[in-house]
């Protein structure tokens, strides 16, 4: 079996279609701001497309790889901002674009948004990796440099 046969990757368009909502939701949970989320998600998929030839499916799943790019992009965004963003729910509610998920249309999502705004970046990062990206404890542990059991404890 040749090297190219052992590392068969799906077409990037398929990767994009299957993972866009996970990456978008992950970034949104971190930033809590739609326009900044859209900018970063666009940059994530541009980076991913540019470096897709170097992606190795033996090292991680494509979703984990994309979440790592997204996490680094969000970290870079916060570094540029030099402080944690102030969140005011009144500033972000706007008419939704056709076909876009509008997360803040019902009271439960609005309350969840307010609760998330009180969490630290690290806490939001953990929740986004767990619930939005659906990563395993082992994959989340790699992001934080901790053992899967520690991830389980943090989750509990």
Describe it.
- 67% of the residues lie in helices and 0% in strands.
- It is built from nine helices and no strands.
Indicate the proportion of strand residues.
under 5%
Helix content: 55-70%
Q: Biggest sheet: strands, sense, closure? A: none
Query: Would you list the SSEs in sequence order as H and E?
Result: HHHHHHHHH
Low-confidence stretches: 1-5, 89-101
State the separation between the terminal residues, measured CA to CA. Answer: 44 Å
Structural class: mainly alpha
> What best-fitting shape do the alpha-carbon axes yield?
globular
Mean pLDDT: 79
Strand segment count: 0
What's a concise summary of this model?
The protein is mostly helical and 156 residues long.
Layout of helices and strands, plus pairs?
Elements: H1 3-6, H2 12-31, H3 34-50, H4 62-81, H5 89-92, H6 107-117, H7 121-132, H8 137-144, H9 148-155
Quickly list its features.
single chain; 156 residues; 9 helices
